[in-house]
Specification:
This protein has 283 residues and is α/β, with parallel strands linked by helices. It is built from 12 helices and 10 strands. It has a 10-stranded mixed β-sheet with strand order 2-1-3-10-9-4-5-8-6-7, with helices on both faces. The longest helix has 19 residues. GO terms for molecular function: phosphate acetyltransferase activity. This is Phosphate acetyltransferase. Belongs to the phosphate acetyltransferase and butyryltransferase family.
Length: 283
Amino acid sequence: MTVLDAIFERVKMRPGRVVFPEWQEPRIAQARARLSEQCLCTPVPVDPVDDDLIETLVQARGIKPVLARRMLDKPLIRAAAMVAAGRADVMVAGAEAPTRRVIEAAGLAIGLADGISAPSSFFLMVFPDGREMIFADCAVTVAPSAQELTGIAQASAVSGCALLGDARVALLSYSTGTSGAGGSVDRVRTAAELTGFAGPVQADAALNAGIARLKGVEAVDANVLVFPSLDAGNIAYKLAQELAGAQAVGPCLQGFRQPVCDLSRGTTVDDIVAATAVTLALV
């Protein structure tokens, strides 16, 4: 049984409520139908603005009710407020909206988890040879600071445990240990020291125990790879798709108090179904 099979079985046992702010988008409509037919979740549309949602946003942002009402005119923010108010378990969006708008809505209404300074994202990568991994951050943070890398690694560890059963985290670099120097190496090293995760470590050493020994570091056998920049993460997951035939499920946002999925605007119905199930498994 693959990790996706296991996730589908898990969410069927406790199907959650998923709010889709892009309710009428054709791919979303088809995915909603399949999710319902397969008993994976209860899709819910965005509610009209009401006093409860206004109060939720007032409490979250410390703003006046008149401003909260105006902000809730936007379906993305209203959907995020529904999650914050307990009317939905997760939000799935992004088929039409750009990533920055999905993040903005989640940040305004749901807020970041304690200890997290910035949101990030991950892909669940499923390889033809049976390997299953978390790649982060591949869609959000362009040039993370040491503090942001720390948050990405911590959030990715939580995601890894929830989806894979355990999280063996490696903070990747072009340097292993003290073999190289530079600004990005320093940021990765600081994040590794703050989290206790392996790093800085090159990808081969993170994945191959024999190479790790040759390079003088402890074997990690990593299943959660944290990349030093958005360039590296985004290129890596696309190479894995095209050269290794990996399935990339996501991107799912992480670091918020409650799960949010940010779909690619090129997403397919199959992608939406899988990403929704993965997001529900994080609840």
